[in-house]
Amino acid sequence: MKMIMFDFRDSEKEFFEKNILKDFEIKFITEPLNEKTELSDEEFESTDIISVFTTSNVTEKVLKKFKNLRIVTTRSSAHDHIDTDYCTKQKIAVFNIEQYGRTSVAEYSTALILALIRNLLPAYYDMKNHSINHKIYEGRVLSSYTIGIIGCGAIGSAVAKIARFFGMKVLINSYMKNPELNGSCEFVSLDELLASSDIISLHLPYNGDNYHMISTEEFDKMKDGVYIVNTASGELLDVKALYDNLVKGKVLGAALDVLECEFISTYKGEMAAVMEEAEQHCVETALITQKLFNMKNVIITPHIAYNTKESVDYILTETFNLIRDYLKGVNTNRIC
To answer: Per residue in 149-169, pLDDT tens?
Structure first.
């Protein structure tokens, strides 16, 4: 089958060097798939499968160009970057990958927390620029903090266990209650978590209903000097509200590994061209994100919390397993 893999990363190359996929004729493209993507007429005509990451923007206009497309796979749990309504109408199967980053994302989230509260990046850049001010690098030990974890699936539970190892008080808001955490963590309402946490870390999937679940009203309920960490989904967090609260000092620091309208913020080409095609709210979000990049108390990374050898191998193995299952009539992890 003919397949094009977009958003292809260097970290994925080793998998294909070690695994022979005889049933697939694969073209690798490092750029994301979007309405600006140029392919030959033959490629648009003959491609059976496309594989993307969250940085792609797979709209109806994009999908219509592929004349015989059968399968779309995303190498992520999130799938809001794909027009699933159009895929359903056209009987194009869409698959995602779940449960791939429990340990990887949990460890990365903890690293971001440590970098924030110990002022790691300001200290590094000041040292590099020979302008040192020890007073502003002062932090606190983790055991002095209360962490609020929103979402208690595999990743949220792993973060909770790490936090308890460091001696932190752990509050959790989640519709799921992991019995393994009973007695060591406290399950509370969202309002109580917002009011009582020194650090708030997001670990739940975006489902459309929880769009901007952390916005102006939620920030108003938080402690002064709170830290925000998001390694889950950019759509959960209103970056305009985050920026406003960083400016006024309500939020002491933030670390974001995911961004709303990620395809714009990570676009490598001419920004004006992609913004012209984007929805207005994505343009506004991208402009706010640029302001966040200039703040010393904000860490933004390019969606790499999952990016360990173990997770990448799992994602790619599962991607091809799902395709093979589908061709045999089994619809594992099929979204539509």
So the answer is: 999 999 999 999 999 999 999
Distance between CA atoms of residues 291 and 280, nearest Å: 17
Cβ atoms of 143 and 168 closer than 8 Å = yes
For domain 2-100+309-327, give the CATH superfamily.
Answer: NAD(P)-binding Rossmann-like Domain (3.40.50.720)
Helix H or strand E encompassing 223: none
How many alpha carbons lie under 13 Å from residue 148 in its C-beta half-sphere?
A: 21
Residues 6+ apart with CB under 8 A from 297: 116, 122, 246, 252, 253, 254
Q: What is the CATH number of domain 102-300?
A: 3.40.50.720
Q: Which residues contact 288 (CB under 8 A, 6 or more apart)?
A: 239, 240, 243
**What span, in angstroms and rounded, lies between the C-alpha atoms of 310 and 18?**
14
Residues 194-245 pLDDT 10s: 999 999 999 999 989 999 999 999 999 999 999 999 999 999 999 999 999 9
**18 in helix, strand or coil?**
helix
Phi/psi for 145 (5° steps) reads -105, 155
